[in-house]
Design a protein that fits this description.
The protein is α/β, with parallel strands linked by helices. The protein has two domains: 148 residues, Alpha/beta knot (3-Layer(aba) Sandwich); 57 residues, Trp Operon Repressor, Chain A (Orthogonal Bundle), CATH 1.10.1270.20. It is 34% helix and 19% strand. The chain contains nine helices and ten strands. A five-stranded parallel beta sheet has the order 2-1-6-5-8. A three-stranded mixed beta sheet has the order 3-4-7. It has a two-stranded antiparallel ribbon with strand order 9-10. Helix 3 links the parallel strand 5 and strand 6. Helix 3 packs across helix 5. The protein is elongated, with a radius of gyration of 22 Å. The two termini are 35 Å apart. The structure holds 6-[(3-hydroxybenzyl)amino]pyridine-3-carboxamide.
Length: 226
């Protein structure tokens, strides 16, 4: 999978993506990142990427021309995605869908926003990682890259392979324990020490369901299975 990123801060990449599982995926070239500096697509002496908003108001708006030029320089690279607080929410379902593409393009906005014509006429989808405002789209882009990378074949080892993703996302995880069996007086549930695999499975499903009901009842609202 090849991911192209358009940003005013190319030095932020690969950043945290160079460690751990994502780092392995990058080192093995199972995932490749191509980072483009938005300023390289300007032509004026001041390499201006932003301008004051029509109609007035505070802050600066990213100009459309450099963004259109950068993306057009890379035609046929799969979906073009703008990270923005106005986007559709990034969910595991959307992550799975994006993981089905060989490549895609991520545009990271900055300042108070991006000229509306980018979203309207260049971008295939606008994606938000949640209802909060950040100083730029770079961290959201990294979140998206991390989530998609771990679904690329070979990035996760067989030990950690993306188990039952549907189960893993529609219900919260069951509780996990490791040694010691007693820590500061707190016992690991007896059933997990019993070696009865069918019972353990049943207990885990019940725990996952109960935990979801208590903490995230919204996840159960549109659940196809009970
Ligand atoms: C405004 C994404 C701000 C418009 C980006 C980009 C939060 C998210 C920005 C725009 C962002 C998010 C940069 N803040 N919740 N800030 O995914 O296109």
């Amino acid at each position: 999978m090849n991911i192209e990123v358009l940003t005013l801060f190319p030095e932020l990449f690969p950043g945290p993506l160079s460690s751990g599982v994502t780092g392995r995926g990058l080192a093995a070239a199972l995932v490749t990142l191509q980072i483009h500096n938005l300023r390289d697509y300007t032509h004026d002496r001041h390499r201006q990427v932003d301008d004051i908003p029509y109609g007035g108001g505070a802050g600066m708006v990213l100009k459309p021309e450099p963004i259109f030029e950068a993306v057009r320089a890379r035609a046929g690279i799969g979906p073009v995605i703008l990270l923005s607080p106005q986007g559709e929410r990034l969910t595991q379902g959307l992550v799975r869908e994006l993981a089905g593409h060989r490549d895609f393009y991520l545009i990271c906005g900055r300042y108070e926003g991006v000229d509306e014509r980018v979203g309207a006429h260049l971008v295939d989808r606008e994606v938000s990682i949640g209802d909060y405002i950040l100083t730029g789209g770079e961290l959201p882009a990294m979140v998206l890259i991390d989530a998609v990378s771990r679904l690329v074949t070979g990035v996760l080892g067989s030990e950690e392979s993306p188990k039952d993703e549907s189960f893993a996302v529609e219900l919260l995880e069951y509780p996990h324990y490791t040694r010691p069996a007693v820590f500061e007086g707190h016992q690991v549930p007896e059933v997990l020490l019993s070696g009865h695999h069918a019972e353990i499975e049943r207990w885990r499903r019940a725990q996952a369901a109960e935990r979801t009901r208590r903490r995230r009842p919204d996840l159960l609202d549109h659940q196809p299975k009970s």
